[in-house]
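FW: tagging you since you asked about this chain on Friday. Here's the raw sequence from the shared folder, copied in full. Didn't touch anything.
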Amino acid sequence: MTTDVKKAGALSFRTWISIVLFGLVGQIAWVVENMYFSRFMQNEITKAPYATTLLVAFSALFATLATLIGGALSDRAGKRKAFICWGYVVWGFTIAAFSLVPMQPSADKVLPMVILVVAMDCIMSVIGSVSNDASFNTWITDVTNTANRAKVDTVLAIMPLFAMAVVFGGFDSLTNADATVDDWKKFFIIMGIMPTVGGLIGLAVMRDKKGIKPNRNNSFWNDFTYSLKPSTIKENKMLYVCLSGFTVASISYQVYINYLFNIVEQTMKIKNYIIPIGIIMVVAAVGSVIVSSAMDKYGKKRFYYPTIIAGSVGCVIIWLSKFFIDKNYTAELVLLIIGGVLAMGVNLVMAGLFTASYRDYIPKGKEGLFQGCRIVMYVLIPMIIGPLVAQIIINIHNAGVADENIVYPMELFLGAAAVLLFCLVPSKVVRDEQAKRHDELMKELQEENK
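HL: got it, structure written out here
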């Protein structure tokens, strides 16, 4: 890499602080939404898988609509910071509000409580999607270029792991099988404070990229639907192929992630799970950063197939640990850690591969408008299909079992492994074409820095 390109890929300290701050705090909020709301539903409302499926699917739907609106508003306003910072402030209050939900309802009140939790989750997802999925991701596209996007997107991709480390390591005891109603209330209040404080700090730290101008050339409806129009898809085919790759990977992830904590704690019977999960998070995060640096240096082409295969193998290894439950605790832990590192690490690297590639194809001046299609393919589709696949697997393995006795099966990982292999199809196209686009953009950066 030449000195000029290195210079083009350099980001200021203030920019990195903003990336890490909003990336981490945002993911703390999403970890609560994606993993702990599901656990809250399963432990404190009902174990029936339909409730978790509804929670995830409706949240995804409202998040998608909010991102479409937020992306359009961000471009039309020519501002990102206000949407991000003030959005995070309000986001925290919507999380803290869960402390008010009545828990452990009687049988006749389960359905109303399911509806209430789903509705509150939708409100939380709307605020989070406008501030994070739409505005923050648009800001990331503004401030990055092809010389640093794989690195930045992988740094952002490991934020869920750091967020899990913060939430899981510091506050998981407030949500486990022995948690009381007061514990859950404390958990939601603490988790709500974090985004609110992060947004307030961001007001002093973050800066919008210079030169961004309001784009009101089209009607709001045209901006709202722009990235979903057949004509737009036809004109930007490779952009959508890149998105489809991570769509498949995200479906695979959603097959098991909403049940992960209860699988480890209840199905695998690992009560002291903080250490193995912590090892998985740290090794996966470090490994993904190393791989992302190699992707920026050598190009992404070499990484698609090995990454997909490694992810599928990792899920199968976790599944194999079922044969050691109650028989060989050490072997069970070793398989969980090895498989978990591969599965989690690959999910992070896939984000660096496909999201960085997708950003390379976004037309200048349309950064906010293309956040809508990203959320449709990264969130809406995976968070509907993945939980439905999970529900089918859970129901098959719990046929005739009462809701309170449902066990979440290890076969969820086999389902995830099978789904991930379908990612080989879009990977073939992206692998063959994206290298050309990368070279074109690198040449443009060299010209700009002469």
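FW: The radius of gyration is 21 Å.
HL: agreed, and The chain has one domain: 12-448.
FW: great, closing this out.
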